Amino acid sequence: MNFYAIRAIYLFELARTWRTLLQSIATPVISTSLYFVVFGSAIGARMEAMHGIPYGAFIIPGLIMMALLTESISNASFGIYMPRYSGTIYEVLSAPVSYVEIVIGYVGAAATKSLVLGVIILVTARLFVDYEIQHPLMMALFLVLTAVTFCLFGFIIGIWADGWEKLQIVPALIVTPLAFLGGSFYSIEMLPPLWQKVTLFNPVVYLISGFRWSFYGVSDISVGVSLAMILGFLGACLLAVWWIFKTGYRLKN
Amino acid sequence: MQPVIAIEQLTKTYASGHPALKRIDLEIHKGEIFALLGPNGAGKTTLISIICGIVNPGGGRVLVDGHDIVQDYRAARSKIGLVPQELFNEGFESVWATVRFSRGLFGKAPDDLFLENLLRDLSLWDKRNARILELSGGMKRRVMIAKALSHEPSILFLDEPTAGVDVELRRDMWEMVRGLRERGVTIILTTHYIEEAEEMADRIGVISRGEIILVEDKDVLMHKLGKKQLTLHLQRPLAEIPAELASYPLELTDAGNQLVFTFDAQHEDTGIAELLRRLAAHGIDFKDLQSSQSSLEEIFVNLVHGR
């Protein structure tokens, strides 16, 4: 294992985060806080409780997940796309590092950043809304699994993209709608029966449901299924990354 | 002597169907400066990129210091430093951060003293905290070199190192390359500037359309393929070469004011004395004469275009 290389990539990527602190941390924290203020404090007081949970508290897990998903994808995709775009990727490809080490460095740094962001949003939410966490260890597990999985997904997008537009397309046109329709703001039970079935094709539903369970002990879908789904997606991403490096797709030709 | 790089039957065809390399065989000796010459698109950069791990090889194999570049890539790559042709850099990073990154990436423990000396040698120490995008083109080139040397490689690839570089930096780089060779580093450089190869290289390889068409010691190459020419500046211009002299390889230039005689410098009888006698017999006087040996550039152009 080339630990110096992993460390070099990891620290180099994190340094980029600190350099762009406003954009990478402050912006998502502020925009998520706006949801807490508007839907939590202002409108939330007039909404019905869901599964017996006040609306302001109900939406917190979903909002954190939404921020975590979008930030993980954008951090990780940018992290690998940037050296491809600028050409500096030549150095990583010519270094005595294995694919696993490259992925640990880049995805590890992006996931670290996402987790820090998730924790900051969690703490910030407390300023506006009261909430409880019944299963803190499971909550941490969901947080870490989601951050790592979606950073891997972002890494794949960053390698697939051959222009800035493609880099934005997947987060903007696929992930954000899925997150909005994934039950951040409502319980699946509120949907008409047909849409309750359709919504089960949305992977984000499982993430938010499981994450919400770790807070309040209630969920639309059983927590075991949620965990299995996220682990399945993690496996699929790992497979895709393995294939990318095996074939040198968009990297070595 | 075991070669430090051994390339056997290396091929590469890009997805577009373009055959970039056709069964390349080449050996690089330890401690030499090897210049790879070739026109644009000849396959120079593809060859270097495969050895360094940036492009997947098609067929054949490459050993770096005895290590296969695919099966034993860690050992092979850790010996190599690469300065690519283009100025790729992380514009927002400082010089210091980017050089430290490179050293770590190649699996070396941090050694700030070594890096400080390296930056001092390359006149970059004063700029260590500057962001790379603030530097001039020449300084950026130095940063690329510093990155390539940051992990103390024993083989250095310089892909067109002095393209677009001013005279001063070019001289500096030549000095640096010689200094590295003295320390036992093997250097492979590609260049468009033939004078650079002529000045620096121990051996020269010429690549054209994906094939190595020649590998030779520089001195032998110059000796073997070099032609000598004698130029006579005539007193009065000639309309044409007299028919009696047609058997000589003569050429009239400068509107008939110069007569150029090409001869084989290796041959014992160059034929100059006889030619001069016969010119005098024809009443052709000259006011000056000079002889010249063809440069590597001319040899190169002849080689590539003669195919």
From TrEMBL, chain A:
Keywords: Cell membrane, Membrane, Transmembrane, Transmembrane helix, Transport. Residues 19-248 form the ABC transmembrane type-2 domain. It comes from the Bacteria. The chain crosses the membrane at residues 20-43, 55-82, 102-125, 137-161, 167-186, 198-215, 221-245. Pfam families: ABC2_membrane (PF01061). GO terms for molecular function: ABC-type transporter activity. Its main location: membrane. It is a multi-pass membrane protein. The keyword Transport applies. One of its GO terms (cellular component) is ATP-binding cassette (ABC) transporter complex. It is found in: Cell inner membrane; Membrane. Belongs to the ABC-2 integral membrane protein family. This is Transport permease protein. It comes from Stutzerimonas stutzeri. The lineage of its organism: Bacteria, Pseudomonadati, Pseudomonadota, Gammaproteobacteria, Pseudomonadales.
